[in-house]
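hey can u check if this looks right to u? its 419 residues, i copy pasted from the old doc so theres a chance i mangled smth
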Amino acid sequence: MTTPAVLPRALRTALPLFAGQAVVLGSGFALNAALVAWVFKGDPAAMGRLGVLSEALQWITVVALMGMPAAVMRLAPARPAARGAILRTASVAAIVAALALAFVAPFPVPFGDLLVGHENTGLLWTYGFRAVPLCAIWVSTAALHAEGRLHRKAAVEGFERVAVLVCGLAGALLLQRSRIDGLLIGMLAGSCAAWGFAWTSFLRDPALADRSAAVPFRELLRIGAPQMAISLLESLRPLILLRIAQELVGGDALGHLATAKTFALPLVIAPELLAQALFPGMHGPAGEKAHVEGDRKRFIVEIAAAGVVVCAIYGGLAAWLLPAIGTGKYAGAVVPLLILLPGVLAQGATAHTGYVLLVRDRLGKAALVSVLALVVTVFLAALLVPGGGAVHGATGAALALSAGLVVRSALLLAFARQS
């Protein structure tokens, strides 16, 4: 039997997500454009510092989450009567862990200097605590996704990005003498506002008020631990890459790499949303549905075909626009961005495959994939970045990251095959 095209079906389901993510992407690109054209105009090095801080925040957040979003998505559909207990336990655990990590991370020894470099440790006292609202939001959106409330999930994600955009730029405007401090404080305030908005999604949910059910934290951790390992390794890869560039070449090279990554990697959101839209129909109390394997193969082919066209157009636009903004100081980000696009395309094509591994309880293999991709990225970065200068250092780092993404995708395909 021929498997019907999967993208039209996924697109129909994902329309609520795309509506919200259009806001997310629009806000993200608006913020990035404002950063290179105004906040850090003519100063790629400052953009590089923000890039390192953002990746460090991502790492702190995924460690604090401990895989709770994956545990919520896996357990809530199978135990709908206990979804309130699942959400409460996961949220409290992640928030407490985020508070602890945000307090410890800024200390120069032994964490701060290693995580973001000595010059950035002071900024972590502000920015690191953004992990707390982010953890709460991620657990909340995972619960909404598991319940099929995609409109509300999209609204929460869109609200967070708009709030971060508005509050971040307002902070940079108010603190003209130290725009990066104002920007980070404003972004923290925006995420806190979104946290409050996310929790309004559950105020009238009777399951949340039901205290009769109980879900032990260790059960959630057991389910989420493999995903925690995967997320930790996935977030380490860009962080280590930026830190290598920061220590070995620094300055403009770091800024060019951070700019290229900031504008290229969000492209993977579109195929990720399509994969998310397919997830609720992939499994249920009886296990994996029969159509999953066919969907997985069709998804890869269809995303690859569409992605080639999108990446070609996007790369052409980037090559035209980046040299025109920020007094031409960001022209050096063009080549790294173009190099990242094949890796982004490979990651997008295997977005659905990652969910297949979750359904088939093969997250341990997915964690192994992340380890191998990290090793490839770090090895190539150590080989290609040193002594490259501003242009070649950023190019070498981009080659390392893109190669790591391609290796990751190839291994995911190998481990997802039905035995």
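The mean pLDDT is 88.
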